[in-house]
Amino acid sequence: MSQGNTGVTSQVVNAQACPVREVLDRVVGKWSVPILVAAAHGPIRFTELERSIDGISRRMLTLTLRNLERDGLLVRTVHPTVPPKVEYELTPVAEELHGTLLKLTGWAERHRVTIAESRAAYDERRGLVDA
Prior knowledge:
It is built from 5 helices and 3 strands. It has about 130 residues and is mainly alpha-helical. A 3-stranded antiparallel sheet has the order 1-3-2. The protein starts with 9 loop residues before the first helix and ends in a 6-residue tail after the last helix. The mean pLDDT is about 90.
């Protein structure tokens, strides 16, 4: 262990990271990001979300929406019409998160080629490249 890390144990790291990991796991889940991005353009209906997110099942969309609502990232509004009209909208916390997601995706786009090149070079150095 280096001098700068004296006293840092895996228990300390895990205890501090656990709540953050739980939030990040939910926020950057496979379906959460596309839902948050779609809802960032204003209130959106369930069927619009379902159509706009390729590969998501109705059940997974429902579960993810409930979790995002539970986490305080979406507001679900039921309009008293026949049939009922249900819309989802970002909360202020989710709007802030959306800005962060845009920065992260921008970073990923700017650096994806560099990362791909680094992976290829790493694999080549270790003989992991198919001949």
